[in-house]
């Protein structure tokens, strides 16, 4: 296939106008020639404009779920003085690795399964008030347990739901449950007050089975997205490590509070939130993120990026190598080690969390982050 033909087919792919015959032709090129390097001149467009247009087109296709096909790869190198180096990986329908010095953009989609070869990443362990544990992905739908006056059900959609059936009946005292997710998994739980919580991988939430007091208090480690049921008479508080907390009445927000991260980040999507750390407190509004260390720093962000994980994506925004590898380590359950100097790359974009780990490491290598994978250990080499 000539460079011109490849460009034309890629343009049609981006616009969603690829015919079955053209698809077969592109697949044949992938099987026979994609391991080599293709030199692609951009014609009447500058290389920068071409790269930006391709990246935007693939992002839009991903967001609209326009294309769902098997993996293929397009590799492009634009060389000499003003020409940039680019690599596009179009995986399982929609995806991209785009290297643009001095920064990178990454996005990839995939139908390959995480770890075990299944798309079912809805896994969690429920610990009941008496200490007994329930493996939720192995539990049938319907009644899971009775906790005082509260019934705990696994719904048809697979989430956990608490329903207080004790209106007007004296409660036997506060009982606490906790739910935790393993590597490569996330889970949704609906609390007794109607608040919905989505837990990311390696996260844990402790909560009362019924909110009978003057406030609603839960404890979080890891990461979770909250849609808090409104109750102006009963504030909702999320207690975090290092004497930090988030207080709301009814709102949508994300908290990232993994112990291996330097900061705790609270990002607001809707409503208002009061962030507390020791004696300091700060209100944030939608589109703002509070970065909590020994103080509170507020900045304006794209709030949707903070919940990309909930929608099945890794999200990077000028992220350094260690930040990226921590996310990968938590999701795939691998140990991350470093040999030599840590690459100084900053990457921006998305990668589908259904992608195979080996493919992700290949993507990162194209962007300058080389690694080896042995058993369950990834070593970054430089």
Explain the overall architecture.
The protein is of the alpha+beta class and 382 residues long. It folds into two domains: 1-111 and 312-382, Phage tail protein beta-alpha-beta fold, CATH 3.55.50; 125-306, Jelly Rolls (Sandwich). Helices cover 19% and strands 39% of the residues. It is built from six helices and 28 strands. The chain has an 18-stranded mixed β-sheet that branches. It is globular, with a radius of gyration of 23 Å. 36% of the residues are buried. Mean pLDDT is 77; it is low at 34-48 and 61-118.
What keyword list fits this structure?
382 residues; alpha+beta; Phage tail protein beta-alpha-beta fold; Jelly Rolls; 2 domains; 18-stranded mixed β-sheet; 4-stranded mixed β-sheet; 28 strands; 39% strand; globular
């Amino acid at each position: 296939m000539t460079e011109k033909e490849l460009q034309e087919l890629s343009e049609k792919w981006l616009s969603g106008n690829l015919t079955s015959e053209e698809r077969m032709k592109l697949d044949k090129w992938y099987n026979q020639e994609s391991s080599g390097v293709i030199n692609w001149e951009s014609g009447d467009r500058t290389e920068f404009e071409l790269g930006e247009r391709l990246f935007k087109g693939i992002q839009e296709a991903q967001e609209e779920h326009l294309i769902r096909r098997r993996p293929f790869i397009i590799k492009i190198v634009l060389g000499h003085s003003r020409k940039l180096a680019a690599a596009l990986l179009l995986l399982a329908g929609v995806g991209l690795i785009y290297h643009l010095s001095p920064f990178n953009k990454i996005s990839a989609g995939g139908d390959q399964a995480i770890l075990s070869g299944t798309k079912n990443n809805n896994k969690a362990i429920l610990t009941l008030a008496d200490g007994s544990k329930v493996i939720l992905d192995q539990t049938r739908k319907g009644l899971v347990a009775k906790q005082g006056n509260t019934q705990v059900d696994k719904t048809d959609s697979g989430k956990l739901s608490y329903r207080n059936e004790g209106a007007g009946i004296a409660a036997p005292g506060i009982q606490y449950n906790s739910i935790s997710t393993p590597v490569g998994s996330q889970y949704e739980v609906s609390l007794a007050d109607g608040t919905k919580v989505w837990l990311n991988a390696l996260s844990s939430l402790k909560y009362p089975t019924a909110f009978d007091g003057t406030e609603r208090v839960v404890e979080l480690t890891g990461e979770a997205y909250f849609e808090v049921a409104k109750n102006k008479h009963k504030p909702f508080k999320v207690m975090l490590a290092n004497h930090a907390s988030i207080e709301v009445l009814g709102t949508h927000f994300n908290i990232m509070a993994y112990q291996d991260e330097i900061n705790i980040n609270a990002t607001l999507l809707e409503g208002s939130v009061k962030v507390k750390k020791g004696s300091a407190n700060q209100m944030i509004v939608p589109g703002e993120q509070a970065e909590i260390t020994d103080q509170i720093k507020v900045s304006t962000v794209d709030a949707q990026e903070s919940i990309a994980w909930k929608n099945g994506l890794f999200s990077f925004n000028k992220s350094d190598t260690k930040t990226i590898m921590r996310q990968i380590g938590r999701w795939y359950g691998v140990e991350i080690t470093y040999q030599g100097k840590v690459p100084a790359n900053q990457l921006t974009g998305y990668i589908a969390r259904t992608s195979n780990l080996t493919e992700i490491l290949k993507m990162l290598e194209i962007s300058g982050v080389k690694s080896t994978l042995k058993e369950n250990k990834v070593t970054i080499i430089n």
